[in-house]
Amino acid sequence: METKNQCLKMREVEEPYEVWQTPDGSWEWRVLKKWQLDDDKEYARWFCAVKSPFTFGSFEYGDVYVKEIKANAVKQEADPPRPEYDRCNAGHSLVLMEGSGGKKIWDCPICKKGMEEEENEITLPNGMKMWKKNGETFCGWKDKIKEGNN
Ligand SMILES: [Zn+2]
């Protein structure tokens, strides 16, 4: 049963394969590389970034025996997928995207402020308009969008 080691390529500390913590959270191992496929082997090692009461908030890097980690720590649930950000249409700041490649959720403070000052509607440099209606912020090519009965 030959399977490839999927964790052989070194990862950055912000993007570890796994995170293990002691139950009290005082120790943390971020697994950046697994040297072997079979972690149950006697001297199986992981290359880790380790945070502990002795590292004063920073990480120390080095090989750790898998057995040692498993005896003391619990594997943490993987982070939920991170939200995506994009620039607001005027390029001021990052705004949250709803879903991958989805619509922008407008929280650009500069655009919002501009809208308040310009009677709840502004035209962005690319010709797109933003406006407020019923407390909600809309964005689009307004002349092409029907707004109901108004
Ligand atoms: Zn903006």
Q: How many separate structural domains?
A: 2
Distance between the termini: 68 Å
Order of helices and strands: EEEEHEEEEHEEE
β-strand amount: 25-35%
Instruction: Kindly state the number of beta strands.
Output: 11
Structural overview:
The strands form 3 sheets. Strands 4-3-2-1-5 form a 5-stranded antiparallel sheet. A 3-stranded antiparallel sheet has the order 6-7-8, with no helix packed on it. It has a 3-stranded antiparallel sheet with strand order 9-10-11, covered by helices on one side. It contains 2 helices and 11 strands, in the order E-E-E-E-H-E-E-E-E-H-E-E-E. Strand 7 (94-97) and strand 8 form a beta hairpin. With 150 residues, the chain is mostly beta strands. The chain starts with 17 loop residues before the first strand and ends in a 10-residue tail after the last strand. The chain has 2 domains: 18-75, no CATH class; 85-142, no CATH class. Helix content is 11%, strand content 32%. Bound molecules: zinc ion. Zinc ion binds at residues 88, 90, 92-93, 108, 110-111.
Provide a concise account of the structure shown.
This protein has helices at 66-72, 109-117; strands spanning 18-21, 28-34, 45-51, 60-65, 74-75, 85-87, 94-97, 104-105, 121-123, 129-133, 136-140. It is mainly beta and 150 residues long.
Sum up the structure in keywords.
mainly beta; five-stranded antiparallel β-sheet; 2 helices; binds zinc ion; disordered C terminus; about 150 residues; three-stranded antiparallel β-sheet
Describe the secondary structure blueprint for this structure.
Blueprint: E1 18-21, E2 28-34, E3 45-51, E4 60-65, H1 66-72, E5 74-75, E6 85-87, E7 94-97, E8 104-105, H2 109-117, E9 121-123, E10 129-133, E11 136-140
Antiparallel strand pairs: 1-2, 1-5, 2-3, 3-4, 6-7, 7-8, 9-10, 10-11
The protein binds zinc ion (ZN).
